[in-house]
Amino acid sequence: DTAVSQTPKYLVTQMGNDKSIKCEQNLGHDTMYWYKQDSKKFLKIMFSYNNKELIINETVPNRFSPKSPDKAHLNLHINSLELGDSAVYFCASSQGDSHQETQYFGPGTRLLVL
Amino acid sequence: KQEVTQIPAALSVPEGENLVLNCSFTDSAIYNLQWFRQDPGKGLTSLLLIQSSQREQTSGRLNASLDKSSGRSTLYIAASQPGDSATYLCAVRPGYQLTFGKGTKLSVIP
C-alpha cells in the first residue's frame, strides 16, 4: 500500500488555468506538507498543515492554497497558473508537528505550464 | 538563513566501493538532519534521521554522522551496489520545515 499518494502524476496545462493536485496519506499522520522542487532541483517548503495550524512559507504566492477536507488529505489548489509554476510538487506527512518526526514523501506531481 | 550544501554534485564509482557523501549547513541550530534518496520519477525515501543530540545513525550498509557544531554530516555507503544509484538529499530541520540541499547524484557502475 502506498503511504503517501498524489494525483495526478503528470499535469500539463495552459497558462492562466486553475488546477488542483490531490494528496492522501494512509499513515494516520496529523501533519501534512507541500514542497516544490524547481528546475534547479531545490526542494522548498510551501505549506505545513495540521488540524490546528496552517503555516505558510512567506515566499509562496497567494495563488497557491492548500485545502484539507479531512486529516488524511491535503490538496493543493493553484489559480491563474504561470510559466514559473512549472516544477515537481511533493506532498509529505509526519506523525505530528514535533521537530523530531520523520517526514514521508509522496511520488511527486510533475506540473508543466505552457 | 539556513543553507545546505552537498558535495560533490555528482559521483560515479565502481560497484563494491565504499563511498562518502558530504553535507554542510550554515546554522547549527537544528532539531535534526535527515538523509533521503530520490529515484528518477519517484518520491523521496527517508534513509536515516539523526536527532540533534545524536552523533550517528546506522541502517544496513548506510551510516550517517552528524557534527552539529561544525555544521557537517556525512553519509557513508559500504560496498556500493548498482541499486544504490540515485540522488541523495540531505535536509536539516531548523523549524517546522525541512531545508534541503541540492543533492548528490550517485552512479554505481557494475
With helices defined by DSSP (H or I, 4 residues minimum), what is the helix count of chain A?
0
Helix content of chain B: under 10%
Which structural category do the helix and sheet elements of chain B fall into?
Answer: mainly beta
- Our Rg estimate of chain A from Cα atoms comes to 13 Å
Please give the number of β-strands of chain B.
11
Largest interface: A-B, 24 and 24 residues
The value of Rg of chain B in angstroms is: 13 Å
Taking pLDDT < 50 over at least 5 consecutive residues as the criterion, the unreliable ranges of chain A are: none
Mean pLDDT of chain B: 93
Query: Strand portion of chain B, in percent?
Result: over 45%
**Strand count, sense and closure of the main sheet of chain B?**
6 strands, mixed
User: What is the molecular shape of chain A?
Assistant: globular
**Percentage of residues assigned to helices of chain A:** under 10%
Fraction of residues in β-strands of chain A: over 45%
- The end-to-end distance of chain B, rounded to whole angstroms, is 41 Å
| Separate helix tally of chain B | 0
Roughly what is the average pLDDT of chain A, rounded to an integer?
89
Give a short account of the largest sheet of chain A: 7 strands, mixed
Assembly state here?
A: heterodimer
